[in-house]
Amino acid sequence: MSSTLESKEHQALRAAVAALGQKYGREYLARTAREGGHPDELWADAARLGYLGVSIPEEYGGGGGGITELSLVLEELGAAGCPLLMMVVSPAICGTVIARFGTDAQKRTWLPGLADGTRTMAFGITEPDAGSNAHRITTTARRDGDEWVLTGRKVFISGVDIADATLIVGRTEDARTGSLKPCLFIVPRDAPGFGRSVIDMELQAAEKQFELTLDEVRLPADALVGDEDAGLLQLFAGLNPERIMTAAFAIGMGRYALTKAVDYARTRQVWKQPIGAHQAIAHPLAAAHIDLELARLMMRKAAHLYDAGDDMGAGEAANMAKYAAAEACVKAVDQSVHTLGGNGLTREYGLASLITASRVARIAPVSREMILNFVSHQSLGLPKSY
Questions:
Q1: Closest-CA residue to 363 (of 164, 152, 202, 151)
Q2: Helices (H), the chain
Q3: Rounded CA gap, 173 and 370, in Å?
Q4: Is 159 left (phi over 0), alpha (psi -120 to 50) or beta?
Q5: pLDDT value at position 178?
Q6: 270 exposed, middle or buried (CB, 10 Å; 0-12, 13-18, 19+)?
Q7: Most CB atoms closer than 10 Å: which of 18, 204, 288, 362?
Q8: What is the pLDDT of residue 34?
Q9: CB of 169 within 8 A of CB of 136?
């Protein structure tokens, strides 16, 4: 990345995170996933060095930076082969929402632990019958005296088994209109009526996916995050960082795969010269590099707009960055595996598992088709199709 685009502080942060990533690498993460464990050592090291809390306000033990710095950390860990998925969820979504909208008590309770890695929080929005349509969320919250009572189901929720609580998106009834509006609630892991079951995934990852049931889960009044009337503003305060961080995850993965392929193409000799000398090998790798760099620029724009407080501008850019990064990542991984031929499918080289992993960014947290709907409607002004 050109020094004219990144400050010396950001360059130093990149170098330091890259060094940590190299200490662990792809084999560490793959072995942890195979053994059914969690990357606790890497998480603890990243926390100790201040990387997990880089976007959390200084008064709560964080680095006082923004999503720009946090996305940089995740990208570099990904480029080293060991991205931490829970960074997308715990500091980026939950930490940001609580820092922006939480009460003083919620900030004191959660932000220091999210910053130093001693506490983690999951995020629950997706539902079995709602999918990408957040307006169809059926998890509801009703008042009962001084308490809230939550009922509903969630699906594909990451890391609930290791999270101290889950930030649940529910809907409450607007007293004036009677219509339902989104609200966010902190649900402790051991809350009565809060059940979870593991979803059996083909994707091999350390972070497990869960289906959640909320059966008359009773919460105190202070479990509600922020203003009951803020609705979508608070929700997208978490969803825009999620898209930016997903882009960082995808760009890091694409860079990792591309580096492996380039190293192989430089040294692998079949005829009289390395295979990288052939344009049929070199050009697709060069194109993949270009696509990753373009996606990275849009991610930086989205993070800059978000950190500057431009929620509307950040929303458009974050969606574009997530779309571009997912496409670039899938193409980079595919071309990298192809460059290695049969070796690309072996465990020794560690690229084949990325074929499945790279597609996640096309699907989650929102599908590429829904992003195209957003851009065609919001950016281009075309009629809505749904």
A1: 202
A2: 8-34, 40-48, 67-79, 86-87, 96-101, 104-116, 232-267, 279-307, 311-340, 353-363, 368-374
A3: 27
A4: left
A5: 64
A6: exposed
A7: 288
A8: 94
A9: no
pLDDT at 194: 98
pTM, whole model, 2 decimals?
A: 0.96
pLDDT number for residue 230: 67
Per run of 10 residues, the mean pLDDT along the chain (length 386 residues) is 78 98 97 96 98 98 98 98 98 97 96 97 91 76 95 96 96 74 94 97 92 98 85 83 98 98 96 95 98 98 97 96 98 98 95 96 94 96 92
pLDDT of residue 265: 98
Q: Determine the pLDDT at residue 132.
A: 65
Cβ atoms within 10 A of the Cβ of 175, count?
9
Please say whether the dihedral angle defined by the alpha carbons of residues 136, 139, 145 and 147, taken in this order, is positive or negative.
negative
Largest CA distance in the chain: 80
Rounded CA gap, 53 and 210, in Å? 25
Contacts of 379 (CB under 8 A, 6+ apart): 316
- Tell how far CA 34 is from the center of its chain: 22
Backbone angles phi, psi at 102, to 5 degrees: -70, 160
Identity of residue 202:
E
The continuous run of DSSP H or E covering 210 comes out as strand 209-220
Quick check: helix, strand or coil at residue 9? Answer: helix
Structure tokens at 202: 């083909």
Measured CA to CA, the distance from residue 296 to residue 304 in angstroms comes to 12
Q: Write the DSSP symbol of residue 92.
A: I
Q: Are 210 and 198 in contact (CB under 8 A)?
A: yes
